[in-house]
């Protein structure tokens, strides 16, 4: 999907549908297979694996009281999140938020979101550099050291974000701004959004039947 507006709208609709029930979650995963470029990327494979293991453990513990439903719904939500992260391109969030809600508020939110995404993209590189630094000492990163290492990376990320904010302030940035949004919409965007709406309607229909 080329248009970030239809992509973000589809992400929201599919996420709501996945949360509503397992049947809609399966339909959402089928949507991802059909309409994604199938080039799924994740910021950290280890973080993704840890999250999936945690979901699996909770599902096993909850067998008999909705564990299978929980596993399907959470797997769908994780897949949607990975797809959304993989498809997003620099500047798209700013384009979308300047278009809606627009004005100074949209520009501010877009700038914050773009800064956050920029820092998220740097996390894998920071982690690789940390592992390289530890290997230079003739050591290997053990399982118990992952939490403090990730904590340090989080602190570094927040510190960089603070420095970027200070740099903008030094350059005279106060509030709001102007930005010309550009969008490229094709048939796949429209069809994909239509089926995303169909998925949420399917979820609501099943929810009403269940109630």
Structural notes for this entry:
- With 211 residues, the protein is mostly helical.
- The chain has helices at residues 4-20, 22-35, 45-61, 67-87, 92-99, 103-136, 146-170, 187-210.
- It has eight helices and no strands.
- The protein folds into two domains: 1-90 and 185-211, no CATH class; 104-177, no CATH class.
- The chain is flat and about 55 Å long.
- 76% of the residues lie in helices and 0% in strands.
- Helix 5 packs antiparallel against helix 6 (103-136).
| Uncertain ranges | none
Q: How many strands?
A: 0
Order of helices and strands: HHHHHHHH
Portion of residues within helices: over 70%
User: Tell me, what's the shape?
Assistant: flat
Number of helices: 8
Report the β-strand fraction as a percent range.
under 5%
Question: What is the domain tally?
Answer: 2
The largest sheet is: none
């Amino acid at each position: 999907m080329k248009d970030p507006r239809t992509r973000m709208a589809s992400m929201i609709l599919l996420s709501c549908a996945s949360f509503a029930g397992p049947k809609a979650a399966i339909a959402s995963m089928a949507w991802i297979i059909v309409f994604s470029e199938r080039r799924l990327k994740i910021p950290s494979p280890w973080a993704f694996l840890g999250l999936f293991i945690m979901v699996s453990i909770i599902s096993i513990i909850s067998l008999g009281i909705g564990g299978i439903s929980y596993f399907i719904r959470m797997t769908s939500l994780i897949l949607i999140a990975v797809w959304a992260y993989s498809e997003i391109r620099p500047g798209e969030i700013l384009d979308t938020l300047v278009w809606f809600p627009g004005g100074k508020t949209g520009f501010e939110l877009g700038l914050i979101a773009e800064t956050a995404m920029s820092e998220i993209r740097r996390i894998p590189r920071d982690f690789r550099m940390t592992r390289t630094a530890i290997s230079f000492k003739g050591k290997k990163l053990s399982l118990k050291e992952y939490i403090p290492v990730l904590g340090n990376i989080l602190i570094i990320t927040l510190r960089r974000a603070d420095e970027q904010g200070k740099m903008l302030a030094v350059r005279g940035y106060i509030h709001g701004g102007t930005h010309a949004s550009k969008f490229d919409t094709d048939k796949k965007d429209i069809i994909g959004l239509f089926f995303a709406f169909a998925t949420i309607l399917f979820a609501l229909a099943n929810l009403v039947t269940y109630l």
